[in-house]
Fold this protein.
Amino acid sequence: MTSRVGYGPVPRAEEDHSRVDVDDRFDALLNGAGEGAQPGDALIELAQRYSYVVPDAGSLSILADLGPLVEMGAGNGYWAHRLRALGVDVVAYDLAPPDGDRPNRYHPMPATWTDVIAGDHTNLAHHPDRALLLCWPPLFSSLGECLIQYSGDTVALIGDGGHRTARLQDLNETFTNVAAVPVRALDPFPGTVPTLSVWRRRASRQWLAPRCRAISGVDPTATDCGQADSEREDRQQDQRPVPADYGLQVGRRLMRAAHEAHELGDRHREDEHDRDRDEEGEQDPRQYPSHSTGESNTRRTR
């Protein structure tokens, strides 16, 4: 069973998506979009009909190598359609597919290029084995919270770093950027270069454990990722039982420190007084009591 989507019939979700035969004129229309009186309006119309970012051959090749994919915020499914045409296994979701019951403000025409499932970012919890694709996620949308639900290892993000597209919460904290290539956006923020960036989840301690043991004989799960032995011993000492006279010991240390500070302050004041006398040219000797021995010391000015 088929339904008319985009510019022609495409299979339903339960059928083969590897080849989709539709009249795709995006490239030809894009080349002629700048020739009219209002090129900006023409580009926005193309973005609503196709995609806000052009799926060039290089970007499609990178994404194909990451498959299978789960796309969140797929819109009218144009990127999923182009990827499925290359034989990539893609599950596409959108909160409001254009051919569904809810209107889609970014793709107002009631048609999709391929099958798009109605669903939000919480559905990502069911696809940990797929790389996550986000293409031009709207700024301030719930798509910024995708990583809360996604437990997979790879993220492919097409965006502009938070100008007109959403920033992914905890992306920099839990993933490492391994690749980035520029892409063409139809409505970019002035002065920015939109990119397709690929991110890999940082290895967990459990994943690192066998490798650390094989290389150094240290088990990071048992020793806080190879923390120095001296630091571990210090921490263990801090956890020893507190002696019964601990408070008395602390009090003695504080009193000794206060006494030393008092003597240091007295010596500093004596030196300041001698320096003042030297500056005034006074030659008379002065007697200063010694706080340490109780005896008197004679200090003469130069």
